[in-house]
């Protein structure tokens, strides 16, 4: 019987998706089966090349070596990309920006800065032993390698490993030239890679002789000289074509370390190095031992350079930086002649004043360094002492703006008060304890004078009075006036500002005090009068500068001169008084006696003197009224002899008419009295030079007009006249 609840359903046919799935499965199966059979076939074929044992080790090493070589080449190419850019630019390194010859205010040469170079000497005119000395010492295989001396590098590596230090270099002359032309002297792996690529580039673009010529012209030879031609002229006073074998050996020895082996720096080291060069020439087969014997027995002797030792080197360094700024837009020349403002007589005595005081009393006060700047009231620098010994330290303490002026800053405070119109030198103010917050300044003697005048307060260098004045005028106007008068570096405006807790330089202090000396006008220190090219074209002339701006009123200047004159006659600066000269100034001593100053002026000159130690260690209670004031007085007494003494408005002094020095030229204390010799004015000196040039031109023209034939004819006529024919 059929179940009444049963319903028969029809079975669906296989869908398209099932058929696709079956096709996919079978296809994948067939693919992997084929892949397996292919791999098996490949394995069977490669099994025929299977290497085992020692041969497998060699092949593995070769394979890894090629892999690392490829990686290294990619890395070296990446590092060498800057070299490609350098060659693409077509520009070489500048040896130095400028070549400058400096003259003093009278037109006499006092020194040079920048480069000395001469690339006009052809390679074929050089002495053969000059070339041999360079090749024997720097690159014996120069004409055999492709720019990189693999043999030389290997030999140097072995030598250095044996010595356990770098005693021999492996760079070829081409590599050294690449460094000179394109790179710096930093010792890095990256630079060596660049050097190698550039050496290859040079070898493909220049001949061997051209590379050697460039090397001789661009190598630094010490003393500011680039190239052997300039070095020969500088060290031996002759052209490179005329140098001897001994001199050529000394020049060739400079390639390795020009500063160390420069003959004017260490003659013994230079001669020892030259002896090594002669040995190298014998070992390289260029000369025999007999041929170098004479050069060994009579080593080269450089010309004397005492005039450069006596040059005002601190001033020249400072002036050179100024020249670079003034000629920055000059494109037609890199060689200049600079007329400076320096007075060689005053410069010499300024150096002697500082050094003699230090020799006599420096040890007692535990002070080792000093600096001094002398200006005329218009800002012209007449002398600059940047330290006691330029040979030991080229750090210029006269221009370094990192010393606190102490109480020598107080005139800025008093000048601000007088400029306000509410104060005068006779204004009475209280000298009593004062506090600003938790800061309570005290006087040097830890005592107070009560009610005093401004003149008396500045004369005695009282501390509380300028602090009270700063509260009245504001500290901002004091800082502004200090900047207007000549303090160039920035400093924080703090409550201790009136007591000189700032940083400044000796030259800025001298410039600032010049405002009091010249009647209230800004007097920025300058050391350059005129700059011309070697062809005589004027690049800069100080006379074309705009007139100075007025900083202080005449009334303020008169008041400040009155007060600062009192400092010298009856205050802390009594040791700076110069009889018969209206001297004025201010002492300065900083906290813990680290700095001692005297800044002063007359109608003729302004000078700032500083003493201290480079490491900022404290002195033995040295104050500005001691060594700085003594140095200032010693210099000014000399500088004001045999000149017209100019008056100082507001400064009370007694003029000494026609001073007569003792016949013995000594004082009552048997001290030698030095007097400045009378000198010509710059204009008079210039006229004498022009007259001398005219006579030289006339003499030259006369010699040119009289040739040998005319000379013989004139002699014959004279003989005939004498004989009566």
From TrEMBL:
Region Disordered, residue ranges: 655-684, 706-725
Gene3D superfamilies found in the cross-reference section: Biosynthetic peptidoglycan transglycosylase-like (1.10.3810.10), DD-peptidase/beta-lactamase superfamily (3.40.710.10)
Classification via InterPro entries: Beta-lactam/transpept-like, Glyco_trans_51, Glycosyltr_51/Transpeptidase, Lysozyme-like_dom_sf, PBP_transglycosylase, PCN-bd_Tpept
Catalytic activity: [GlcNAc-(1->4)-Mur2Ac(oyl-L-Ala-gamma-D-Glu-L-Lys-D-Ala-D-Ala)](n)-di-trans,octa-cis-undecaprenyl diphosphate + beta-D-GlcNAc-(1->4)-Mur2Ac(oyl-L-Ala-gamma-D-Glu-L-Lys-D-Ala-D-Ala)-di-trans,octa-cis-undecaprenyl diphosphate = [GlcNAc-(1->4)-Mur2Ac(oyl-L-Ala-gamma-D-Glu-L-Lys-D-Ala-D-Ala)](n+1)-di-trans,octa-cis-undecaprenyl diphosphate + di-trans,octa-cis-undecaprenyl diphosphate + H(+)
Transmembrane segment boundaries: 65-85
Catalytic activity, EC: 2.4.99.28
Keywords: Carboxypeptidase, Glycosyltransferase, Hydrolase, Membrane, Multifunctional enzyme, Protease, Transferase, Transmembrane, Transmembrane helix
Residues covered by the Glycosyl transferase family domain: 116-281
Penicillin-binding protein transpeptidase domain ranges (all copies): 370-604
Top-level taxon in the UniProt lineage: Bacteria
Pathways per UniProt: Cell wall biogenesis; peptidoglycan biosynthesis
Protein family according to the UniProt entry: In the N-terminal section; belongs to the glycosyltransferase 51 family. In the C-terminal section; belongs to the transpeptidase family.
NCBIfam families found in the cross-reference section: PBP_1a_fam (TIGR02074)
Protein name: peptidoglycan glycosyltransferase
Provenance organism: Maritalea mediterranea
